[in-house]
Q: What sequence folds into this?
């Protein structure tokens, strides 16, 4: 069947009937949320177990079950590999992995996929695991990629039933209260796991820093936690910040960032009470910095900014340019320290910031957002998941929810990456539909979505280099040879969910080149 | 049928089949928690309504439905009366009221009961409403009294389905994030309503201080809130602290408090890491103060203390005698200020601190607690709900959960109140069973529960005046005439739930005197 973006979607995958994407706000949920089985832990019962193996036994984890993890340690995470290794040793296989995201550090999972320990993955796959899965025929069912809010929604709605949630906790107490912003090796918020911990059959907190009761803030609560395991180390916080978390030094990209900041200024949204989302990625970080400078120059105090938290956003908070910083994840150690120490740096979970099936989320309060893309197309559709060679290498993150929410969503991209054009006729994969994108900002000019004539007029009045997207594309295309294009087969490697649980696109196996 | 305390319990009340009390930890829950209907609030939808009447209309509130409230303003609350008055004007009747607690300020409800606007009440009834209901024949069904944790449990378990939750919020934003510890008229934590706001069909936040997005801490979250109403005033914080929140000046009661503190010292629990609950009530407050002095003298640093928060507990925190103060409610303005300003004064909700149907609650981590009673009996059963004349005048509060959890639960009571004996053969109503009470501390000595021979030995070794409870009772009885006793009829005025949802006792209508 075709969805609202004319993408071909299978009607059924295994026992799951797929719902096609119907527009950014096209669906209204029905029925009830899922409900956890009742359980009481009585006075005097203890929760602390000696090892991951003991926890696997205590939880009754068996072949065919679903296990979940958060990604707050990003490329420094130890827990996913540790748990899956233990499962393999204990003869458990056919697992469905339900991480928020995997990183290059999780490459050892490839062997576990080959051996059948891991049969399915639903979660972002940044890097080698994604590349491996892209080859096709590796998993028992297509991978499912969800946004931050989409994953939360899926658990609450009962779309994904977690058997055992494993929560890496930089600090925990023996009763299972846990946080990621304290401890020997803080990794930033771990509230991504809060929905897992509340809906899983069993919840296991794994910590390398057990402290006396009570540990707070209660990102994970005693009332949700079945077991606590103490291990030597759970992750390397030094690996949280990756290369994409430094401000770009490229003159082209700095130009894009300055243009984006100028667009924000010209948009009419930049006034007292202004709110914005400053993501990771070199251009977004530079844009965040330049927007902060515009605010300072104009004497504007914003209401709030949202991360992932970075040193740059913390700096904007400390300079009094916004009243509040809201963060669900931390991209560097400065953000973690600020979450711990600054009363106005407030920890939020993905349900709060991004859940479609809720009575409203934080991104709906945003004025502006600066987001990246691997590709954009002439319908303003955005791809952040695949490269133009068809490889599935990135997760969705909060891209969908921020784009859907912000009054001004700017995609900041160079027109070329190496010799590859970024603006294409039709994106390889749609992550976020053009209807929620307001403008594409490139080093060759700004293309405004035709839905936003008001914005176009403002930009023109401000003297910004506004151009049709097709013109920018044509100019870039002239500088490079048309790249070879992958030919896709029938096998669906992955489903890309829109944040409401409908299918916005699929990723198919590459079977040749043209 | 008879329950485990030999109290006579009806098998059925209306369409509810009653489960008899089976011991403090006698039941294990089955099935699943309740689940809220799915709903999405989409981009651009607003929540702010002009009046309570508009909210009543928007929520679809109708005759026969259930509405809920928190009691954080205590005797200063305006919202319950305002909403019920509005319902009456709008022709809505047959309501089930589900407040956490009612106070003397809610006496106008009596007229609404008479006129049929309010048909049922499930919640604590402190004072005139309780006295009125005690007369019998007033409500369509017996009142149901639950502890803090028991009420939370009942909502999560689906025992009580709330149609509309009204949440008095001293500060809120237009999207429905709300807190009680900030604003023009802070009342302390409002997280008692968090379970209502998450499970009700519709949630209405009512505030007198609407602030720009985002208001935090998120005691009530935007994702739970359907509507926000701004009114002139929601309550009088000056009425939060009542007469029972001052340290006693009575020499007898001070003697009891000193004896209780000496008992804590002798118990063996008073060492580094010590934790305790210091409730309200003149003797409890004095005991809290004296225990703090003992800690200071001995150079002990405790792990945590729990309130209801008071100036005395805040003082103990500020003096460094405990690392953390956990509070679900505030009993005075000092506690509210401290919750707002002290990072180590941590707000908890009743689910966290007290829920039986959870994977463990904070009271299970307590070493010691000092609680009051209207009556105690020779089986160490405690009554806090009724007076010996059979009048239902008080709620349960956290009495059951604290007593069930603390390793050392002391009931601090004078042997006589006026001419009425406090120690009786059999309490008029059992609120908390003797099995979870460790000792009764009176001005005539300490009676240790025979289950705690270890404690008895320690107290004797420390030279404390340990005596059989029957002896203390006999001594007190000799000083007064036997009071007239009420004769109870068949009509059940109220059910007293144990914290697990079983029925520990009933309150019956007084039909005569003997």
A:
């Amino acid at each position: 069947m075709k969805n609202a973006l004319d993408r071909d979607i299978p009607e059924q995958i295994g026992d799951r009937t797929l719902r096609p994407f119907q527009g950014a706000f096209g669906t209204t949920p029905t029925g009830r949320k899922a409900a956890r089985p009742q359980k009481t832990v009585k006075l005097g019962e203890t929760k602390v177990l000696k090892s991951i193996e003991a926890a696997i036994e205590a939880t009754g984890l068996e072949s065919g079950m679903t296990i979940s993890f958060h990604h707050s340690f990003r490329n420094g995470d130890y827990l996913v590999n540790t748990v899956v290794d233990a499962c393999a040793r204990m003869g458990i296989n056919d697992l469905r992995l339900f991480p928020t995201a995997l990183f290059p550090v999780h490459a050892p999972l490839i062997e576990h996929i080959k051996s059948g320990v891991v049969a399915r993955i639903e979660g972002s796959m940044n890097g080698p695991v994604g590349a491996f899965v892209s080859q096709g025929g590796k998993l028992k069912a297509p991978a499912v990629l969800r946004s931050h809010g989409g994953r939360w929604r899926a658990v609450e709605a009962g779309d994904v039933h977690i058997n055992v949630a494993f929560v890496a906790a930089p600090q925990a107490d023996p009763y299972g209260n846990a946080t990621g912003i304290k401890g020997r090796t803080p990794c930033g918020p771990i509230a991504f796991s809060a929905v897992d911990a509340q809906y899983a059959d069993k919840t296991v907190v794994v910590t390398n820093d057990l402290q006396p009761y009570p540990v707070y803030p209660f990102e994970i609560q005693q009332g949700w936690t079945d077991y606590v395991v103490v291990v030597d180390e759970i992750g390397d916080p030094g690996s949280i910040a990756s290369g994409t978390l430094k401000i770009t030094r490229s003159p082209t990209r700095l130009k894009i960032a300055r243009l984006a900041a100028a667009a924000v200024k010209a948009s009419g949204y930049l006034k007292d009470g202004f709110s914005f989302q400053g993501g990771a990625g070199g251009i977004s970080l530079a844009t965040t910095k330049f927007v902060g400078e515009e605010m300072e120059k104009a004497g504007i105090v914003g209401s709030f900014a949202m991360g992932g938290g970075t040193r740059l956003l913390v700096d904007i908070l400390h300079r009094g340019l916004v009243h509040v910083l809201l963060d669900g994840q931390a991209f560097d150690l400065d953000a973690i320290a600020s979450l711990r120490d600054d009363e106005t740096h407030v920890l939020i979970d993905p349900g709060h910031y991004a859940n479609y099936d809720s009575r409203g989320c934080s991104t709906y309060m945003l004025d502006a957002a600066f987001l990246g893309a691997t590709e954009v197309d002439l319908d303003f559709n955005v791809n952040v998941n695949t490269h133009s060679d068809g490889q599935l290498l990135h997760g969705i993150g909060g891209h969908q929810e921020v784009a859907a929410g912000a009054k001004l969503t700017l995609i900041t991209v160079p027109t070329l990456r190496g010799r590859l054009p970024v603006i294409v006729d039709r994106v390889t994969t749609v992550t976020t539909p053009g209807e929620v994108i307001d403008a594409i900002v490139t080093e060759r000019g700004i293309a405004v979505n035709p839905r936003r004539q008001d914005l176009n007029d403002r930009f023109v009045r401000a003297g910004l280099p506004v151009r049709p997207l097709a013109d920018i594309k044509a100019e870039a295309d002239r500088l490079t040879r048309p790249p070879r294009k992958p030919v896709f087969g029938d096998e669906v490697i992955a489903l890309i969910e829109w944040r409401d649980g409908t299918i916005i696109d699929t990723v198919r196996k590459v079977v040749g080149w043209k």
In short: The first strand of chain A starts at residue 12 and ends at 13. The two ends of chain A are 26 Å apart (CA to CA).
